[in-house]
Amino acid sequence: MEQKLKLDQAQIKRARKAAEVIAKDMDEFIAKRTTVAVERTVLRLMGVDGVDAEGVPLPNVVVDHLLEKGELSQGVATRMIGAMLYLEQSAQEVAERVAQGSIDLTEIPLVDYPILVHTGQKLAMEGLNKIAANRLQRDTMIKQMGEGKKPYLYVIVATGDIYEDVVQGKSAARQGADIIAVIRSTGQSLIDYVPYGATREGFGGTYATQENFRIMRQALDEVGKEVGRYIRLCNYCSGLCMPEIAAMGALERLDVMLNDALYGILFRDINMQRTLIDQAFSRMINSYAGIIINTGEDNYLTTADAIEAAHTVLASQFINEQFAKFAGLPPEQMGLGHAFEINPEIEDGFLLEVAQAQMARQIFPDAPLKYMPPTKHMTGNIFRGHIQDAMFNLVSVLTGQGIQLLGMMTEAMHTPHIHDRQLAIENAQYIFNNARHLSEEIYFKPGGRIEKRAQEVLDKAVMMLEEVQEIGLFAALEKGMLADVKRSLEGGKGLDGVIERTDDYFNPFEDELRERLKLPQREGAAYERRSYTS
């Protein structure tokens, strides 16, 4: 990519180096721990699904059973595989018997390590091969049907009823949308289980369930054939069930997932230890599935000023990039977030927005950056709001953003009606078409306002990242250095779901993902046991 802004490359290297150290420090912390959500994900990838007589998801039943017995630190796979071999039953059948109370997994003899690893590797290969087949199907469909031009037009549906979401999603695709994001029901990120089946009773959005994913995927495939282009499906795997929802999305061929390393900590008060452990495994799954992740830096500017805190957005992008790399996620799947959120009353605010967007584009040249519309400074004046969205769209095409979450003129008034979305799509299509190659004709004045602003933001981000490197990410979060939000190491939701791994911890899916993504295996007994099947 042409470097239109003459940014200090040495500063960019310093920022990346500091972010790498921050992520590496956290990776060493993560390597020694697991969570109830990670272990439930292992069961789901083994094929465990459904609920017990009281409606509790079977993955929760099995994991809670072992947690109560104090036997989860070896990994759920150790006990589950032992039971499958001893009883000669599938993972689903074993889970159902645990739910019925007819077996106690801790009373079944453990199998020898070579047999455990051999069986685990076979199960992991079967589960991951299903995900690989979905990725191949997506690639084939895009090749056959084509897709929209970048920036992809990203719109939301949020009815609470999956069947009404289907109607709205198909309508949006016919209007020109490239990505349909099904907003989750309010508060789902804070429940420590995944609801089951098709749902019609969400609030402010629709519950993320595997059946809902399947229903919407089928609907978008149908409308994609109708309009002649592949329509991407987006949902949210942030929250207490982050890796589980990533696995469900991979199994149902979702294309985009909200998957931020820090969002749940800052904006949902989920314990920082829990979130950082969960994001690592979830991103490995998303990487292998070919799913584009979206990060949530745009939210920083809803709690902090867009001018004063611009460097915190860039710093977080650097950190999210490094966490993604540790999980094997390539740049082409890193939808790093940022937003058009400067107060429109500020003189030359448009120039400052261009500076931020162009800077992000140059620093992360291969990432399909996700650009968020104005929200904080929208009012009930829909005509002014429509103009603000138009300015946002112009910055996007000018700076080559990858994913454009469309702004609605009725933002902050109500959930958008179909005609609101139609106008938003028409606005973006008009500007993108008329300014499609504007960026090729525009150069920025050396040493001008835009270039100086971008360099200033970069310099502040470097200072911040090096401070975080010195004190550690946990301490930085406790000090409120990101988004002006302070969190506690022991506070928030979900800490009781964090478990220290024993030396003989075994997660065959993590091992197999690391093998396929060409990541280094974790040190310790689990890595050594792979030698039995090598």
Describe this structure in words.
This is D-lysine 5,6-aminomutase subunit alpha. GO terms for molecular function: catalytic activity; cobalamin binding. The protein is α/β, with parallel strands linked by helices and 534 residues long. Helices cover 53% and strands 7% of the residues. The protein has a 9-stranded parallel sheet. A two-stranded antiparallel ribbon has the order 1-11.
Shape from CA axes? globular
Total number of distinct structural domains: 2
| Major β-sheet strand ordering | 7-6-5-4-3-2-10-9-8
Radius of gyration from CA coordinates: 23 Å
Low-confidence stretches: 525-534
Q: Beta-strand level of the residues, as a percent range?
A: 5-15%
Class derived from helix and strand content: alpha/beta
User: And the CATH topology of the largest domain?
Assistant: TIM Barrel
* Structure annotation, total helices: 21
Biggest sheet features: 9 strands, parallel
Percent helix: 40-55%
Distance between the termini: 42 Å
Number of β-strand runs: 11
The CATH architecture of the largest domain can be given as: Alpha-Beta Barrel
CATH superfamily of the largest domain: D-Lysine 5,6-aminomutase alpha subunit
Give the mean pLDDT.
95
* CATH top level label of the largest domain: Alpha Beta
